[in-house]
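fwd from M.: "can u put these together and see what the complex looks like"

so here's what she sent:
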Amino acid sequence: MPNVMIRHNEGKMTLYVAKRDQEDEIASIEFNSDDSWGGTIELTDGTKYYVDPLDAPPKLPITLRAKRG
Amino acid sequence: MSVMSREETEALINEVLEVYPAKAKKDRAKHLTVNDHEVEQSKKCITSNKKSLPGVMTIRGCAYAGSKGVVWGPIKDMIHISHGPVGCGQYSRNGRRNYYIGTTGINAFVTMNFTSDFQEKDIVFGGDKKLAKLLEEVETLFPLNKGVSIQSECPIGLIGDDIEAVAKKATATTGKTVVPVRCEGFRGVSQSLGHHIANDAVRDWALDKRDDDNSFQTTPYDVAIIGDYNIGGDAWSSRILLEEMGLRVVAQWSGDGTIAEMELTPKVKLNLVHCYRSMNYISRHMEEKYGIPWVEYNFFGPTKTDESLRKIASFFDESIQKKAEEVIAKYKAEYNAVIEKFKPRLEGKKVMLYIGGLRPRHVIGAYEDLGMEVVGTGYEFAHNDDYDRTIKEMGNATLIYDDVTGYEFEEFVKKVKPDLIGSGVKEKYIFQKMGIPFRQMHSWDYSGPYHGYDGFAIFARDMDMTLNNPCWKKLQAPWKAEAAEEAAVAASA
């Protein structure tokens, strides 16, 4: 259950895992609409994380608890 | 263009690793790599931020060094107590040349050493009482201090002292910020964790002090310099450029910085991050909590400085962008003259670097501006995100080494034969005795500043002064030099 920070970096949405010093671009988010946001997040290198879906898209950057997806 | 081909460099790494026992060899092999621009992520080619191998020479520091020496130490109007035995503070005192303005011992305390000087009885009975007394004494002797930070040394964590409680009590009586920092030296694998702990301490104990206070007059052009430690005056030569382009520098973290500046940083519009490694944590925190964007910049060498000034200006309106161009144009003649003077003397020379923090990648641009080539670089304590950034900066098929051991570094130098080495003082005399020009790049070899256009002139002069120093020709005894010459003549005849 790492803490991940999702933020915009030069126009791209990235996911940062502080513990692993990993900051990678997000390739896809399972739910990405006005009424739900989150679910499985896939990074460009293939790593997957799961965050509990939120009711609305959050204001970035945001720190969330994520599970290995 | 690289001096060695990929195969040659790989062969060199294998050759150097040959002497290790199998297990050590396997471990060290992960830390050495040949740069490949096609690799997107450094984790595929290099391992970093891992415990050093027992039995090899490493030049890493400890968490206390990262917190007290790097992040907290340069804050000039606070007293930084080295809490624990006397040595840690005394032997690292005044070594980093973080310049500051102020009267030492009156309203600035950077170069002084404050310690609780632990004795056996403090280990046995706990040192909290001693610390409380120390805080009182400090208040009496140095009433103009604006706060205290308690930098733990190893024993504090081992005996389980409650420095947080002492700090809270002291804050209640004096009303000044007292920050307990849990940066015991045994934490983590290098000073890098100390930076993180120090950043967290800033976040938890200092940063939000003025959140409800809106008396500070802000402007749309407020910025903070984050991660510039003012070594030899670096932050000052950066600051003038930013001010010339119309920005207002509210805070300097932490070279020549104050606690008040730190507390005001959440009110700025943009955080300028120079040392990513040591200050990215707090920048990310401020981005999330206060919505302050941050941008990395590089003020080494004119090419990178131009780029960075434009990049910083792009966050502001056109008036700033216009002024940034004016600043670049203004200094152009100046730095072109520097390049014109020194490039012929330095062109084509090879450099090997092994430093910490940001320099192994940031100074590459400055060397390239002088026509020099960096053929090998490495970090003491970087993480993979640093190497991600380094891969792009370095030439293809050049050497990259993480937490290089004394033996490996020497062997690399013997084979690659660089014309100049930039590393720390622990390496300096070894390589100078080997007859290789050397610059101590942690504190600029008692020179500086190297940031900005003004700094570049000093940088170029220093490199020339070191490389073209006549002493390097005198290393061989005259009779031996003659013999070699005679042999050469005989061979050619």
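replying to her w this: The mean pLDDT of chain B is 94.
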